[in-house]
Amino acid sequence: MKFSPLISELIAGLKCLPGVGQKSAQRMAFHLLERNREGALSLSQSLFNAMEHVKHCAKCRTFTESQLCDICADPIRGEHATMCVVESPQDMLAIEQTAEFKGRYFVLMGHLSPIDGIGPADIGMPELANELKKGAVEEVILATNPTVEGEATAHYIAELCKEHNVIASRIAHGVPFGGELEYIDGNTLTHAFAGRKAL
Amino acid sequence: MKFSPLISELIAGLKCLPGVGQKSAQRMAFHLLERNREGALSLSQSLFNAMEHVKHCAKCRTFTESQLCDICADPIRGEHATMCVVESPQDMLAIEQTAEFKGRYFVLMGHLSPIDGIGPADIGMPELANELKKGAVEEVILATNPTVEGEATAHYIAELCKEHNVIASRIAHGVPFGGELEYIDGNTLTHAFAGRKAL
């Protein structure tokens, strides 16, 4: 026995969500059918709208349905001399939530990963070079993840900055606030010692 | 900073799925936007189709888009003398997967729960009484969950069967196959002893 065709299709559809397998998809499908048909209809509509209309910002490559995202469209922030390079829109949100950084962004939408066939063109390097060529950017802050790929990407972009005479800086790596030294990995501790500052 | 309106709506929409909070919804939204727009569009369509067309089977109350579900529409199974009563379509699927039971079903779509305001009419008792009145059912197998509400529901239906001179039976409770006695709760063990059979 299987579920009726429309229910089977719904379960198969829900499995395209990350982290959702057969059982979770069944639970979601029946939850929506039993308790939240309105929510499901509105989700159906938002999925359609987002997939049809969300494109990349022409300037920083983040996701947006407009030509430019809110930050790039801002006359002050969009032409700011400091540019922060991040891997994803979620990283951009995390930085925005600190309300510390007031410059513009460039979103790679990934990182260099030759093994997966992701080269410089896939992470917007031609667009970034264009932006640097204009001469408005004075400093590029590299906020890619502290992983092997993130570090390689940061180094690649630092070289690009050198070519265009733009200062490149990397966010600090060290012991996170609230962390306990006892539980912090050796790599992070090594970075924390190497990056020590005079008090 | 927030995401653009369409992305925020998509994230809010995904949060109506059970077990999905803000962070998971963000992860799902960006995963779909970056890697699976086609899958998302097809999910949007299946959600719409299922919510608009899936209703309850006129006979057993399970979910289906037809007038009768596959089992009720089957000329042999749909008029079978043995009826199995379950709480949900998922329970029905679990029993069908054993391929042991060849009779018909009645799906309560819940269980009696006075504290949540769920009474006999909400779990289809009038429809079940109607079905029993027709005289075609000889035995009702009560396969509700072994919880307080499931047991109460089973007792309620057993009384209804008595009124209509139909045999009511309850599935056996005991030690599950592959279980180890050491780790089985006292309640289950008590049931296993009380329900012992002569060899």
How is this structure best described in words?
The structure is a homodimer of 199-residue chains. Chain A is of the alpha/beta class and 199 residues long. Helices cover 45% and strands 11% of the residues of chain A. Among the domains of chain A are: 5-52, Helicase, Ruva Protein, domain 3 (Orthogonal Bundle); 80-170, Dna Topoisomerase Vi A Subunit, Chain: A, domain 2 (3-Layer(aba) Sandwich), CATH 3.40.1360. Chain A contains 8 helices and 6 strands. In chain A, helix 1 packs across helix 2 (22-35) and helix 2 packs across helix 3. The model of chain A has no long low-confidence stretch (mean pLDDT 92). At the A-B interface, helix 1, helix 2, helix 3, strand 2 and helix 5 of A face helix 1, helix 2, helix 3, strand 2 and helix 5 of B.
